[in-house]
Design a protein that fits this description.
Shape: elongated
Number of helices: 2
Number of domains: 1
Order of helices and strands: EEHEHEE
CATH topology: Tetrahydropterin Synthase, Chain A
Distance between the termini: 13 Å
Bound molecules: zinc ion
Strand content: 25-35%
Radius of gyration: 15 Å
CATH superfamily: 6-pyruvoyl tetrahydropterin synthase/QueD
Number of strands: 5
Length: about 130
């Protein structure tokens, strides 16, 4: 199996409803995102997926969150914009687009601060 990963960043504000502590207050992060896709056999060019294409797909997911208050977005109306939910949201947006390219999205990792990350993945369907 071959894996491809791309990374990107975006800046956003959020607050966590119901959190006891400073994260309940409005504050911002520079989020770093890494998305990993895989393919068992390479395409006819010898690629898992063109880096340019993988990067475009990552940005479809993250650009809509850049310089926003995450709590205002539809995706986080009913759930806190925690790093966990952000990772799951990015995964949900990216997965069908990666699949269209013949590859499979394996996981999405979100760093809220350097050294603290969350990884979301779903079980592979063979
Ligand atoms: Zn935070």
């Amino acid at each position: 199996m071959y894996k491809i990963s791309v990374e990107g960043q975006f800046d956003a504000a959020h607050f966590l409803r119901g959190y006891q502590g400073s994260c309940e207050n409005l504050h911002g992060h520079t989020y770093t995102i890494r998305a990993v896709a895989a393919r068992d056999k390479l395409d006819r060019l010898g690629l898992v997926l063109d880096f340019k294409e993988m990067r475009r797909i990552l940005h479809v997911a993250i650009d809509e969150m850049d310089h926003t208050l995450l709590n205002d977005l539809e995706a986080f109306k009913d759930r806190n914009p925690s790093a966990e939910h952000i990772a799951a949201h990015i995964y949900a947006v990216m997965q069908p687009l990666v699949e269209l390219q013949g590859a499979e999205l394996l996981e999405v990792t979100v760093w809220e601060t350097p050294g603290n990350s969350i990884t979301y993945s779903e079980e592979r369907q063979e």
